[in-house]
Amino acid sequence: MSQVFKALSDPTRRRVLQLLQDGPMSAGELSDHFDVSKPTMSAHFAVLKEADLVHAEKAGKSVIYHLKLSVLEEALLGFVHSFGLGAEAPQPKKETAR
Length: 98
Known about the structure:
By secondary structure, the chain is of the alpha+beta class. It contains five helices and three strands. The protein has a three-stranded antiparallel sheet with strand order 1-3-2. α1 packs antiparallel against α4.
């Protein structure tokens, strides 16, 4: 889970994940949305792959990235549950007769 949050800590990587919500995109298509060098984008892609948030496949000379939404959902749910959030509301205590 810590690798997922490391990946999500950067606004560029969060934007990449947002772009991939619309469907798979090549590294070049994704890079066109950012004003950074190709090596910098490659480093961002590597962090996202390490966190298992994206899947990369070779298509000729291109690399196509796919969002792995289930991994993101699991990490976020795990985070929420670690704080006791999202659990069922506690039942009210029954008053005892005196």
